[in-house]
Amino acid sequence: MQEMLIDSIRVSLMNYQRVVILKEKDADRYLPIWIGSPEADSIAIKLQDVSVARPLTHDLLSSIVSALGANIERVVVSELTNDTFYAHLSVKLPDGTFKEIDCRPSDAMAIAVRGGYTVLGSNGEEHWVASIHEAQSMIEDSNNDNSRGINACIPIFVQENVLEKAAISMGNAISGEDSGEFSPDIKNTMPLSKKITEEEIQKMSAFSDFLQDLPGLEDLGEKSDS
How many CB atoms lie within 10 A of CB 144? Predict the structure, then answer.
C-alpha cells in the first residue's frame, strides 16, 4: 500500500469529464481516476483554498464526523474491478475502535483534502496549511524541494494491486509534454482552472433548480382551483 498525493484535476477537452491524477508520494507513479464534476469541483475548491458562502456536502460530512468525536484517519483505494475503483474511509471512533466505511474514491478524496496538510519547516516545526498548493509554496519559499516535508492530515493510500493494474510510471507525466505513456483520453485533457468562478460555484448545488421551482411560502396552504 502506497501513499499518494493529489497531483492535479484535469478536464477532458472532448466531453468535459474530470479526471483526478494521484501521484505516489515517494516515486514517479501516477494513477488517473475519472470522477464526476460535482466531486471534482468539491476537491478543487479545497485544493485552491476557495471560500464558499455555505458548507458543501463534503464540508458537512467532515463536520459531523468531528462533532461526534470521531476522526478520519486515512483513505484507502482498495480495489479496481471492471474499470470501477473502490475505496473506504478508516474512521477512529471515540472509544478508540476503528470502522471502515465503503465509499467512492471521489467522495473519499473530497473528504481527505478537507483535513489539510502539515509542512515540516527548516527549524523542524510543523505548520498546518489548508491546501496542497500552499504547502508546496512553503516548500519552494524555503528552498527545499523535498516533497516528503508535506504530510496530509488525512492521507490517501492505494493498494499495490490497484497500482499494478492502473498506475503509470513516468518522469514527466503532468508537464503537458507527450510522453507516450498516458492513454489518449488522459492526454486530451487540460488542468482544471486555478480560479473557480462564481458561476461554477453556483452550479455545484444539485438542488438549485429544484429550489427555484418550489412554491413560495405565501402559496402554501392555498386551495387550488380544481
Answer: 15
pLDDT, one tens digit per residue, over 39-94 is 999 998 888 878 888 999 999 999 999 999 999 999 999 999 999 999 999 999 99
| Residue 63 belongs to a domain | yes
pLDDT at 191 over 70: no
Our CA angle for 181, 152, 113, nearest 5°, is: 80
Residue pair 88/101 in contact (Cβ under 8 Å)? The answer is: yes
- Residues 191/9, Cβ–Cβ less than 8 Å: yes
> Torsions phi, psi of 172, nearest 5?
-145, 55
Number of other residues whose CB lies within 10 A of the CB of residue 60: 11
Kind and range of the H or E run holding 219 = none
> What is residue 71's DSSP assignment?
E
Q: Which cell numbers in the block locate residue 174?
A: 503532468
Q: What's residue 201's pLDDT?
A: 45
Return the DSSP state at 59.
H
- Could you report the per-residue pLDDT of 97-129, keeping only the tens digit for each? 999 999 999 999 999 999 988 887 766 778 887
Helix (H) or strand (E) holding 89: strand 84-92
Together in a domain, 40 and 70? yes
Q: Which domain holds residue 122?
A: 116-152
Say whether 35 sits in a helix, a strand or coil. strand
